[in-house]
Amino acid sequence: MLRLFRAKIGRQVHIYPTVRITIPWNLKIGEFAAVGDRAILYALGTITIGARATVSQGAHICAGTHDLTDPARPLLKPPILIGEDAWVCADAFVGPGVTIGAGAILGARGVTMRDLPPGTRAAGNPARIIKGKQK
Description:
By secondary structure, the chain is mostly beta strands. The protein has strands at about 10, 15, 20, 25-30, 35, 40, 45-50, 55, 60, 65, 75, 80, 85-90, 95, 100, 105, 110, 120-125, 130.
């Protein structure tokens, strides 16, 4: 069904039926990736989920915000990239313009508004790197 709305979905992708997707034509999901129960993919800007990556249940991937420096608060649509083999754990939040590097993990209920380098592990609100190198 998502392909009918021009989402680019790879082979063997599993998306739970309770996932909420805004603007599916801004969604790209690589092969063997999974999006869990009740996840939110708020794709005002492009959301790319790499091959074999997992977005767990209840996670919120938010590719939309407003310019707080402008009194009119215009809408911004910065893209989000979740790299290959990355894992956004249960109930985590990924903010606009963020890149989750290949193999990185954002722990359960973690919140990141900044990039997570490849192979790192981060947790908390705001998320802090608990394993790997911080940029």
